[in-house]
Structure formats: structure tokens, C-alpha cells
Amino acid sequence: MLQQAEVLVREVQRQIQFAFIHGIGIGIRDHVFRFDDFGSAPEQIVAAALQEDADAIGLSILSGAHMTQFSRVLELLKEQNATDIVVFGGGIIPDADIAELKSMGVAKIFTPGAPTQDIVDWVNSELAAKAESRTG
Length: 136
Prior knowledge:
The chain has 136 residues and is of the alpha/beta class. The chain has five helices and five strands, in the order βαβαβαβαβα. It has helices spanning 18-29, 42-51, 66-79, 95-104, 116-135, and strands spanning 5-11, 33-36, 56-61, 86-91, 108-110. The chain is globular and about 35 Å long.
């Protein structure tokens, strides 16, 4: 089983997604992850991830700005030599954009209706694989 991991779950630009963020946050918290759920800009998200030594960043975007927001977070992580932080997210994102986001380096996109347990299972698996690659 994983040690407690640090996962930042953020809603970008303070959209009205309180229930979604807290639902995912509670699911993550109950499965060995600590989470932070304050909305903010990409610069603040990356700064918080670095300060908190985050293992992953989860972004929730419903505004349609997903290409810009994910791109900026990935760019800032690269500038800070922190590309080992796993970036994933969710929102109302067209399939064609999901494929492009994955090619940019976003590890996973969850669409509306994804069960919380599926997200938790994926985060568990992704971070376990990351931890394993560090040790062996």
C-alpha cells in the first residue's frame, strides 16, 4: 500500500464546482491521499505543488479553457524541472482535446460522470507506479 501521497486538486479560475471538488477530495482523502482544494491560477497551482512537494496535480475545468490552463501548468512544471509531478484532470472536455492533452503530457482526463472510485483507483495506480520507478 502507498504511503500518504500529496495530491493537489484544484478548480481553475474559481468555477462553481464546489461539490465536484469536495466529492473527489473526500474520495482521495479516504484513500491515503492528502488534498488541497483551493481554486487558483496556474502559477499559484504550480507554486503550491512545489511548496507542498506534491506527487500529483488534479485540475477541474468546466470553463472551456482546458487547453490553455493545462498547457500553462505543464509549461510551468517544465520551467521548474518538476515534470515528475503527475498532472490529471476532469471537466467537460471534447474527445479530440483529450487526445491532444494526453500528447502534451496530461496523464489522464476524467469526463463528467466518472465514478469517484475510478479516479481514486487511477491515482493509486499511477502514484504506485511512480513510487516503484523511483525505488527500482
